[in-house]
Amino acid sequence: MEELVSNNFKKLVIRTMSRLLLACLFLWVSVESFAQQKNFSLEEIFKSRKFLPRFVEGFNWFSDQRYAALEADDATKSIQIVLIHALTGEKEILARGEDLKFFGRPIDFAHFEISRDKEHILLTGALPARRLKTGGDVYLYNCKTKLVRKLSSTKGEYEIVKLSPDGKKVGYVRDKNLFVYDIASGREIQLTRDGNANILNGVFDWVYEEEFSIIDGWQWSPDSKHIAFWQLDQSQVPAFKIAKYDSLYLSFLEYRYPKAGDKNSRVKIGVVSFDTRRPQPIFIDLGDNPDIYIPRIDWLPDAKRLAYQRLNRQQNQLELFFYDLEQKQSRLILTERSDAWIEVENDAYRFLSDGFIWSSDRDGYQHFYLYGYDGSLKAQLTKGEFDDDALVYVDEPQQTLYFTSAKESPLERHLYSVKFDGSDLKKLTSEPGTHSATFSPDGSLYSHTYSSVSAPPKFYLRKKDGSLVRELENNAALEKTLSDYAMGKVQFLTFQNPSGISLNAWLLLPANFDSTKKYPVLMHVYGGPGSQTVRNLWGGVNLWYHYLSQQGYLVFSVDNRGTGFRGAAFKKQTYKQLGILETEDQVAGAKFLASLPFVDRSRIGIYGWSYGGYMASMCMTYGNAQGEQVFKLGIAGAPVTHWKFYDTIYTERYMDTPQRNSKGYEISAPLTYADKLKGHFLLIHGTLDDNVHFQNSATFAKKLQESGKLFYTMFYPEQYHGIRGSARFHLHQLMTQFILEKL
Question: What's this model's pTM, rounded to 2 decimal places?
C-alpha cells in the first residue's frame, strides 16, 4: 500500500475510466522481467518461515542511552541477554545462555525484566492461554553471583509477574491472589486472600481483557511502597460451555462470558501498602451504581494519588477521578460525554508532574489536550480535520509532546512533535507509510520502526531531532528473497458511494496485468468500528493475496463508513445499526469494480474473518438482496451472525443493549436475512472459538437450511478464533480451491 493515487487518477477511475490510460498506469512490469520471476506456493507461505520479517528480539529501553536485547551467544548459540549502548554500539553481557539454567536445564523464558541496578533479571514464561501474559515458571537470575532462584516453587498458576521499580521485590498473582516476594529476605507476602474462580485479584475476566485490551490487572506505585489492583467478581456472569472433541465422552471448556444485555463482573479497585506485616487492601468508593466499568488506573508521579477512569454501562460517559491515599477520598477531575460512544485507549493520555495530556474527539477529530491537575484546560495541542493516533513521549522540560498521527493521510502514520501551547507542530518522518517510535527514558533517543506496503519493517535508532544513529534491522534479506517472485502491484484509490461519500480502497493487480482482459475480483473486508484495512504498511496486503493475483485474480479492499481515522462523524454513523451502512458501502465497492473495463462484473467475491466474516455474511444476504446480485461468492470465517450472541462491552458500545435496541439487533443480523442468500457461500469456524462462539455459525447454518439455501461449510475441531498450526495451511488450501472453482 505504498503510493497514493494522484488527483488525475482519481478523476480517471471515477469519471472517464479510459482503458488506454489505465493500461499505462498499471502495466508496471514488462513481460520479459515477469517471465524471470517465480510464483508463490501455499506451502512456502504457510509452512515455511522464509517470508517472515526479522525483528530486534527483546528490544527494551533500559536507561537513557542503553537498551536491552536478546542475542545468540557466538560460542554456544544459546540466547544471552545484553545491554547495548545506543550511540557507540558497545555491548555488556548481563547473562550468558550457559548461565541461564536451573539444575542444569536451560530456562525456557519468553519475557525478561532487568532491575535498575542490573543486579537481577526476572525470567518468565508465556502462559498457554488466550492472551500473552507473563507467568508460568518464574526465575530470578543474579547477575553478580550467576545463581538462579526459582520463585514459582509453590504449586499454583503464576500470572502478571513484575519487578518493583526499585528492583527489590517481585509481585505476582498466584491462583487469583496477589503476592509480593522480597528478594533480600526471600520472604513471600500475601496481599489478598479471597481470590478464587470467581473473585479475581490482579487479573481480568474474559471480556475486560478482550474489549479493553488490558492484561495487567495490578500496578506498582512509583516509590514501590503500594500496589493498586482490580478486583472482579464474576459470580453473576453467565457461564458458557464449549465442547471439546478430544475425549471419548467429550470434555468442556467453561468460562464466564457475558453476552449483550447480561450481567457483568462487579468491579472494585483496591490499594494495598507494605507498612504492616499483614497488609490489608483498602477499596475505593466507586459510587452508588455498581453496573460500571473501570477500564484504566494509573499512579500519579508523586505516588500519593491514583487516577482511575469510570465508564458507564452505556459507554457514553467517561469520568476521570484522582484518589488521595492519605485522605482516602476521590475527586472528579474530568468528564467526557458522547451521543454515541467513548473509546478508551492505552496510548491516549499521560500524567505529568503538574498536569496531564488527554485525548478526545470532542471537536470531531481525535486530538490531544493539556490539563492541570485541578481539571482546568490549559490548551488544545492539536487541531484540524485529522485524527491523532498514539501519544509517544512527553518532554516536560522542553514542554513538547511527541505523537503519531494520520494528519498526512488516513492511510499513513507519521511522527510529530508539538509544543504545550499548540505551536511549532513538526513532522519528524518523511517516507510514505507507517511509522512508530519508542523513546529512551530521557527522550534523547528513540527506536524508530517503519514499513509500507512494499517495504518490510525497518528498525532504526535516532536522536531526538530525527538524525540517524544507526540501522538495527532493514530486512534486506527478505526483500532480496521476495524480488525473485512475481509480486503484484498495489494501488491506492478512492471512489464515491451513492451518498457521495468518498471511500478509500486498495487494488492489487497481477504482475503481468493486461488491461485488455477481464479479471475476477476477490474483495477483502473487515469493516468494524474504528478499524482499517486500507493502510500503507507491510502485511496489509498479505502474500496469500499476491498468490491469488498470480492465479489471475484482482484483490480489492474498501474501508466502509464506520472505519477509523476519518473523524468521529464518519466512524460513529453506524451507531445502533452495525452492518447496514457498511454492507451498502461494500456493495458500492463491488459496483465500482464492475464499472472498470478490466473487471468481470459477474465474478466478484468477498472474504472476511471475525467482523469481516460478519460483513461477508451480510453482503451475501442483505447486500445481494438489494436489487441485482453483486457478489458471486462469499467466504465468512468465524462470523457474528446475531449481536445477541456477542459480549457486553464490545456489542453494547456500538449497539446499546438488546433490551433498548431490539430493532437494531434484528436489522443488523445475518440470521434475519438467511432466506436472501445468493451465490456460492463458504462458512468456516473453529469449534473452540471462545471469542465468536461456534454457536454463531451453527445457528446460521440451521437458518440457511430451513430456508432451503445450499452452502458450503468447514469446521476446525480444537481451533480457537484464529486457525493455527497445520490447520491454517488446510484453511488456505480450502479457500483457494473454493475461489478457483467457484469464482
Answer: 0.93
